[in-house]
Amino acid sequence: MKTICRLALAAILVLGLSSVVRAQTEITLVTMAGIRLPLDELLPRFEQKTGIKVKLVLGGVAPTANHVIKGDPFDLAILLAPDSEALNSSNVVPTSAVTIASLAVGAGVAHGTPKPDLSTPDAAKRSLLAAKSLSYADPAGLSAAGTSFAGTLKKLGIVDQVQPKVKLAKGGQVMPAVLKGDAEIGFVFYNEIHEEGIDLVGELPAQISPRLRLVALISSHSANAAAAKALEQFLSSPEAQAVYKAQRMEPAS
To answer: What is the mean pLDDT of residues 14-39?
Structure first.
């Protein structure tokens, strides 16, 4: 009887210790809200495979970078590259940088309306000049997509021609402006177009709209660097790349 009790107690202690270890194996991932959908699919898979819990902290592009720069707690960060201030902050391990995917700026129009031809730089230029109105996020609000699209207009040399018909929007309000009829075409990150009543048009050509890389970086202060590395490897794996592609993100080459 004593032997049975001792074995039962040992089993309880082992199970208890195992639970404590699993509870302690939690890491924090900080990144942009714009890539939440693929993460909502991938993180549960990672947790199931490894037993490592992931706390997801979402924010805008600039707040996410500032989180890293200020040294707020995290184990893995996914940032838009390049971000030299974050890389030089001493809060990340620069050699840990891995590109997991890329984002493209694309267009959407109200359902049933004509779709502009964006298939080539010349076609995009003609379509932008012919459009009655355009909307994109105000670069002054630190919008990465808005800044990128403003750069596209400069590359095409049509800033002055289209300026009178540009409707700058706050972040997240570009497609609502299209739905309300305030703009004929909206330009945002292509993976972020999910509004009902919006038809997808396509991505802008890379020649006039360079892709923006999503780079994962491990914290130099992480107490679970091995777990952070495991998550980074999973998020750059072929399994993850397939999810990114399905979400209209461009897989890492």
So the answer is: 72
